[in-house]
């Protein structure tokens, strides 16, 4: 939900709702939103489509590895 909001809403609206957005450019904010939305799709789609459902836990592990590195 937050990922698609960063892609669809104007930068100034997102900036008023999320403090950290003021530290990045509009293009970076959109890129983060696209990354979050694709990550959510990658988490759900393999299991839901029953095509390579074994990928879902690996996607979850990838999220755990990337998330903490992006903070700070």
What descriptive keywords fit this protein?
elongated; 72 residues; mainly alpha
Number of domains: 1
Largest sheet: none
Radius of gyration: 14 Å
Low-pLDDT windows of residues:
none
Specify the overall morphology: elongated
Quickly give the structural class. Answer: mainly alpha
Order of H and E elements? HHHH
Mean pLDDT over the full residue set: 78
Residue share in β-strands: under 5%
Q: How would you describe what is shown here?
A:
The chain has 72 residues and is mainly α. The protein contains 4 helices and no strands. The protein has one domain. Helix 1 packs across helix 3 and helix 3 runs antiparallel to helix 4.
Secondary structure layout plus pairing:
Elements: H1 2-8, H2 11-17, H3 26-49, H4 55-70
Helix pairs in contact: 1-3, 3-4
Question: What's the short story on this structure?
Answer:
The chain has 72 residues and is mostly helical. It has helices at residues 2-8, 11-17, 26-49, 55-70.
